[in-house]
Design brief:
six-stranded antiparallel beta sheet, Arc Repressor Mutant, subunit A, 18% strand, seven-stranded mixed beta sheet, 21 helices, Elongation Factor Tu (Ef-tu), domain 3, 36% helix, FAD/NAD(P)-binding domain, 623 residues
Length: 623
């Protein structure tokens, strides 16, 4: 079966689905190879999408024509906008999802893409000619050939599951590990490492007493991820919060001597910001309780995901400790939590397109690059799929700057700094988070996606309507006057200082506590203006309010971004021998030689490269 494709994608997790969908939408003939057609887009850990910074990534994926936002909306059972009490740079959308529907919707989306073909098998090796990948080898002896290959192997590369003192080979519960690829990549000259992640137990929701827990509702007016044609939820399912206690902690400690976390069985690095329950009670011994989030796995299933109770302790210890949690006295466990170790490849071995430096046409995306989280994986898959298609067609690569998207921050961090622990995105990782808000992802990125062929004309038109609507509303608010008494009637109720004369509406919106709803109460003309804008596009009003309130901060960040982009425009010659630049520090020579940055901006972000080292490079470049 000598089948030939433009792009082969190995693995059908979040990264693989986005990669296959993007390359195929752009016109490539794509083959998606997965070990199990029934686990496409499986939510291996928690049944949720988004969250702090991760929600911004999902909206960016959606603005770029990816599928994660649409699928999240179609399978959502609850929607919450996190951090609403903070500034809009911190607002982060999150959905609780129906696990089975999420996987089904992703599969249906891929099946509707005529350029995507499927093959169920394990990939055990690559076909490489010289320094170029030309195809893959599968476990049953079938070879497939392509001009580009995207590896999205998740936790399957030599995956090893730990449960107490027991160990099993596997990529996740019930699925075998993948062998052969790591060994072949090492032979080709790649450096690899090991990382760890884990997952909590799943329990029977019928055996829980929810009256002893705190109910966690979705938003009263739920939003959605996608900028396009999905609908917000009309009904939602609640989550709940429970708490551990000193008895729980003592019961867990009884199993510490049998914990692979503490007896040396696990030596690889796990995610710092999602520690296991045993790690939490060990590191934060002064705390007498920890939050547990009781999350339903779907609309109709009785299965519950116990977020916050990630563990690899023996199963009987897990169950005994859970029963000490109020509301869990009669709990039945469906399956225990476990830890998993797997191979990854330090991402400094990649270019910004996610193509490997060693092998042309070979791309890595997702946990193979040392990241953690569905959202981080999905955005890498999207970018790898886009760039694989562009490479195949000899077109310019598509690279997002740090000032353009969280996706740009994530990839630049990985390529430039590398990672020795599972990388997770946070708003604090971006120096431009006021620019990179979740509400304006479409305004930032959709024109780029349209040029790439990832968005339709109708979708681009909807984005332009929003953009034009914001401009019109800003102008109108700048012209519309508010009488002194009309303004003061509302301002007094808000505890805001009164005005002494008639003012323009635009001058009031910058005051704390004054939003579009408050302006609408000041006179009928403003009410009609705001109402008309909302009817044209649901996001015009909120977008205008944010732009006006934070105009000064936005301008400052745009100025900073412009300065940094000037460094990013200064290209460094390929294969520059840094050891010959005697004025560079020894550490800078070592790090610059390893990373081989393409621009001065990238060089400035490498750990160990100082401002004086950048000055040396500036002089060398004649600047």
């Amino acid at each position: 079966m000598r089948e030939e494709y433009d792009v082969i994608v190995v693995g059908a997790g979040h990264a693989g689905c986005e990669a296959a969908n993007a390359a195929a939408k752009m016109g490539s003939r794509v083959l998606l190879i997965t070990m199990n057609m029934n686990t496409i887009a499986q939510m291996s850990c928690n049944p949720a999408m988004g969250g702090v910074a991760k929600g911004q990534i999902v909206r960016e994926i959606d603005a770029l024509g990816g599928g994660s936002g649409i699928v999240s909306d179609l399978s959502a059972i609850q929607f919450r906008m996190l951090n609403r009490s903070k500034g809009p740079a911190m607002w982060s959308p999150r959905t609780q999802n129906d696990r089975m529907r999420f996987a089904e919707e992703w599969r249906l989306l891929l099946e509707r893409n005529e350029n995507v073909s499927f093959w169920q098998d394990m990939v055990v090796g690559l076909h490489v000619e010289g320094e170029r990948v030309v195809g893959v080898k599968t476990g049953i002896g079938v070879d497939f050939f392509a001009k580009a290959v995207v590896l999205t192997n998740g936790t399957f590369l030599n995956g090893l599951i730990h449960l107490g003192e027991k160990q099993f080979g596997g990529g996740r519960a019930g699925e075998r590990a993948s062998h052969g690829i790591t060994e072949e990549l090492r032979e080709l000259g790649f450096e690899s490492g090991r990382m760890k992640t884990g997952t909590p137990p799943r329990v029977d929701g019928r055996t829980l007493d929810y009256s002893k827990m705190e109910e966690q509702f979705g938003d009263e007016k739920p939003g959605k991820f996608s900028f396009w044609d999905t609908n917000p939820l009309s009904k939602q399912r609640s989550c709940f919060i429970a708490y551990t206690n000193p008895e729980t902690h003592e019961l867990l400690k009884e199993g510490f001597d049998r914990s692979p976390m503490f007896n040396g069985a696990i030596q690889s690095t796990g995610p710092r910001y999602c520690p296991s329950i045993e790690d939490k009670i060990n590191r934060f011994a002064e705390r007498d309780r920890h939050q547990l989030f009781v999350e339903p796995e779907g609309w109709n299933t009785i299965e519950i995901y116990l977020n916050g109770f990630s563990t690899s302790l023996p199963e009987e210890v897990q169950l005994k400790a859970m029963k000490s949690v109020p509301g869990f006295e009669q709990v039945k466990m469906f399956r225990p939590g476990y830890a998993i170790e797997y191979d990854y490849f330090p991402p400094t071995q990649l270019q910004h397109t996610l193509e490997t430096k060693l092998i042309s046409g070979l791309y890595f995306a997702g946990q193979i690059n040392g990241t953690t989280g569905y959202e981080e994986a999905a955005c890498q898959g999207l970018m790898a799929g886009i760039n694989a298609h562009l490479k195949v067609n000899a077109e310019e690569p598509f690279i997002l700057k740090r000032s353009e998207a969280y996706i740009g921050v994530l990839i630049d961090d990985l390529i430039t700094k590398g990672t020795e622990e599972p990388y997770r995105m946070f708003t604090s990782r971006s120096e431009f988070r006021i620019l990179l808000r979740q509400d304006n992802a479409d305004l930032r990125l959709s024109s780029k996606a349209y040029k790439l062929g990832l968005l339709s004309q109708d979708q681009m038109k909807k984005c332009e309507e929003k953009q034009h609507g914001v401009v019109r509303l800003r102008k109108a608010l700048g012209k519309e006057g508010v009488k002194q008494e009309d303004a003061n009637n509302v301002l007094t109720q808000l505890g805001s200082s009164p005005v002494s004369q008639q003012v323009k509406a635009i001058s009031l919106i910058t005051r704390p506590g004054v939003g579009m709803d408050e302006l609408a109460k000041m006179n009928s003309a403003l009410s009609e203006l705001i109402s008309d804008a909302e009817e044209k596009h649901e996001d015009i009003v909120i977008q205008t309010e944010i732009q006006l309130k934070y105009e000064g901060y936005i301008s400052r960040e745009e100025e900073l971004a412009s300065k940094m982009e000037r460094l990013d425009d200064l290209r460094i010659p390929d294969l520059l021998d840094y050891r010959k630049l005697s004025s560079l520090s020894s550490e800078a020579k070592e790090k610059l030689s390893e990373v081989q940055p393409k621009t001065l901006g990238q060089a400035s972000r490498i750990s160990g490269v100082s401002p004086s080292d950048i000055s040396v490079l500036l002089i060398y470049l004649g600047r």
